Structure formats: C-alpha cells, structure tokens
C-alpha cells in the first residue's frame, strides 16, 4: 500500500512525485477502520484480536539457543564440572568464553570474578552468576516509549542490510497486532525498491498499513507523512524501516538524523526508540557496526537476530557491555513468532540448559 503526500499540505519537506492519490488514501482509511473495528469488537468481547494470518506461535528460546548451548556452553560446563578448577582450567574457561564471542576483556573479567567468589556455590554457579551480572539492568517487559496516551510509540529500526531488519519489522508488527494494538509501517528504506515491496508484503500479512513513497524518495518525507498519519489515526505503534547500506555510512547517519529531526518537529517529545538489528552470526564485526551506529544515532535498544544460527551466543553479553544498551528482542528463527522479548535470566538459563 502506497500513501502519497497531498501537495497542498503546509510545512512539508519537498519530494518529487508527491501526487495525491485519493483511491489509495481511501484504502488506507478503510484498512485502519477495519483494524479499529476488529479491536473494538474484540475488546467488547474480552478477547485479544489477532492478525489475519493465523496466530503466530511464540518461538522457543531454549530451542533457539541450542547451538550455543551445545557449542561453547557445553565445553564450558564440561570444564567447570570437573571439580575444583585449576589455574589451567580457568584459562581454558576464559578461552571458551572468548570462542563464544563474549570478548576477551569480558571473558577475563568473568573468570577473575568467578574465581574470587567465596560463596561456596561452585564454579559453574559462579560463572553463571557473573555472566548474568554482565547484562544491563532492565525493567521486565520492554515497551516502546510513548509521549502520551494518544501519541504513537515510534520505533526506528536501523542496521546493516541482510541482518534481518525487514523480517524483524514484520515480526514486531505481528506481535503488536496480536496484542491488540494498531500498527503503521513506514518504508524509510527508499534506496532499494525491493525493500519497499518486502515491507508491504509483511504489512499485508500482519494487518498493518504502510506509508511508502516511490524508490529514491526522501526518507524524511516518508517519515513525515507516516507520523502525520499515525497521529491523525491514533495509531499505537509506528515502525519505521531505514536504509542499511554500509558504503555511504556518513550519508546514512545524516539520513537517520534528519528523520529524527522531522519526528521531533512534528511530534515534540516523541523520543523515538532507535533499535539496532544485530545479526548474531557476524560476531565482533557486528559489534563494530553497532558501536558506529550508537555513536552517531544514540541507540535505545538492540534486536539480536539469528541467535538460532550461531554457536556463539556470547555476543549478547558483549553487545550490552559495549553499548550499555539493553537487548530488547532476540530472533530465534524465520517464523513470524520467532522474535522473543529478551529476558536476561531466562536467556542465561537457556544457555546453561
Ligand atoms: P534485511 O536486509 O536486513 O531487511 O534482512 P531480511 O529481513 O531480508 O532477512 C535476511 C534473512 O535473514 C532472511 O532470509 C530472513 O528470513 C533471515 N532471518 C531474519 N531473522 C532471522 C532469525 O532470527 N533467525 C534466522 N534463522 N533467520 C533470520
């Protein structure tokens, strides 16, 4: 679904081809009305409305981290389970943590702290405690910030192409729709025509309308229109896709900064969430990307995708420590329900098995 800006509206960034399309706008209107009606009916009947594409079963965290549990964690537990660890064993523990992508400095820290513990709980429990302590403090059940009860939560999803950004937006849209919230998608990656189409397909599946301009359009103009539509239609959650090409990093960062300015102007105090999608299989490279994004855009959360495809789930500890920003969701598969809210204790528990 494409929703183009009316050229007569004041105070909007210039954009080529901003032709009014009444039929398309009417369709957007109808989609919103349908979603709202479903919500009202469901609320009246005390049930939770679901997206049209069947109910996504929640993925399984324990199964999702099976590779990591069977990989570096199995080795770690083998080492720690041998009884009182020697200095050589602790060194092996450190190497195993590094092999699991925890990172050299953190691995050393965990081992030193675990060795110093005198609580009699044993080396496995000590390492488990120290790993848990690396994760940043968080409120249980992350939810995106809203400036007020009627203001939409705005989520900018950023990251490098191929990390699973679009799939994750689709999964998020499903999740919020399943909770009975209205969701609007904004096709802010105007660089790739395929990205707009892919997002549109997800929107249709999840029952979330999409605001999109043509390929090559100014992403900030897309965001402007999307915020406008979200406010006018009292949407609960607006999720914005963004371009993720690496080779023009400074342009990309400028583009993101411009989107934020547009949001601030249109909806002061909106404080959009900026969620970075990190592909868990990219290890330390991904970490460097995350740092670059964090420095220039100020990330508010991380979505770690493809945790199911790596044996090095230790990246969770490394990313939180490197950025001081919480992991909000983890992707544990390609199915729509395979995006799970991150629970630090459950995650460490699943790693240890
Ligand atoms: P984008 O270029 O960043 O938008 O990436 P896509 O959303 O197109 O995803 C790239 C590939 O990663 C697709 O094949 C997705 O199905 C896959 N993918 C995304 N998230 C996950 C995940 O959590 N686990 C697995 N195994 N695959 C995923």
Blueprint (SSEs and pairs):
Layout: H1 22-44, H2 61-64, H3 66-70, H4 72-80, H5 87-99, H6 104-116, H7 123-134, E1 153-158, H8 165-178, E2 183-188, H9 193-206, E3 210-211, H10 219-232, E4 237-242, H11 249-266, E5 273-279, H12 283-297, E6 301-305, H13 315-323, E7 327-331, E8 339-341, H14 344-352
Parallel strand pairs: 1-4, 1-5, 2-3, 2-4, 5-6, 6-7
Antiparallel strand pairs: 7-8
Q: What is the SS-derived class?
A: alpha/beta
Termini separation = 44 Å
Number of helices: 14
Instruction: State the helical fraction.
Output: 40-55%
Walk me through what this model shows.
By secondary structure, the protein is an alpha/beta fold. It folds into 2 domains: 2-6 and 22-36 and 142-345, Rossmann fold (3-Layer(aba) Sandwich), CATH 3.40.50.300; 65-133, Four Helix Bundle (Hemerythrin (Met), subunit A) (Up-down Bundle). The chain has 14 helices and 8 strands. Strands 3-2-4-1-5-6-7-8 form an 8-stranded mixed β-sheet, sandwiched between helices. Helix 5 (87-99) runs antiparallel to helix 6 (104-116) and helix 6 crosses helix 7. The longest helix has 23 residues, at 22-44. The protein is elongated. Guanosine-5'-diphosphate binds at residues 161-167, 244, 305-306, 308-309, 331-334, 338. The site of guanosine-5'-diphosphate (GDP) has 17 residues, from helix 8.
């Amino acid at each position: 679904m494409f929703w183009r800006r009316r050229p007569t509206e004041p105070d909007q960034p210039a954009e080529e081809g901003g032709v009014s399309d009444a039929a398309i706008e009417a369709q957007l209107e109808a989609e919103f009305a349908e979603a709202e009606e479903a919500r009202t009916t469901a609320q009246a009947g005390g049930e939770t409305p679901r997206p049209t594409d069947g109910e996504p079963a929640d993925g399984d965290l324990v199964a999702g981290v099976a590779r990591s549990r069977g990989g570096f964690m199995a080795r770690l537990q083998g080492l720690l389970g041998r009884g009182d660890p020697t200095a050589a064993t602790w060194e092996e523990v450190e190497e195993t943590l590094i092999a699991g992508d925890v990172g050299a400095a953190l691995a050393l820290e965990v081992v030193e702290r675990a060795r110093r513990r005198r609580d009699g709980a044993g080396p496995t429990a000590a390492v488990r405690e120290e790993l848990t302590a690396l994760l940043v403090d968080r409120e249980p059940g992350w939810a995106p910030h809203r400036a007020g009860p009627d203001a939409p939560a705005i989520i900018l999803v950023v990251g490098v192409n191929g990390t699973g950004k679009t799939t994750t937006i689709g999964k998020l849209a499903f999740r919020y729709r399943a909770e009975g919230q209205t969701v609007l998608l904004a096709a802010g990656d105007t660089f790739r025509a395929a990205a707009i189409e892919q997002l549109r397909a997800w929107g249709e599946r999840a029952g979330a309308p999409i605001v999109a301009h043509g390929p090559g359009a100014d992403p900030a103009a897309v965001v402007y229109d999307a915020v406008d539509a979200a406010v006018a239609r009292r949407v609960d959650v607006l999720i914005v896709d963004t371009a993720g090409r690496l080779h023009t990093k400074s342009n990309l960062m400028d583009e993101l900064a411009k989107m934020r300015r547009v949001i601030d102007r249109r909806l002061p105090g909106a404080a959009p969430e900026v969620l970075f999608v990190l592909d868990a299989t990219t290890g330390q490279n991904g970490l460097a990307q995350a740092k670059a994004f964090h420095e220039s855009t100020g990330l508010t959360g991380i979505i770690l995708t493809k945790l199911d495809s790596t044996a090095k789930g230790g990246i969770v500890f490394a990313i939180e420590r490197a950025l001081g920003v919480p992991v909000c969701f983890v992707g544990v598969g390609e199915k729509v329900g395979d995006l799970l809210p991150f629970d630090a204790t459950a995650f460490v528990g699943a790693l240890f098995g």
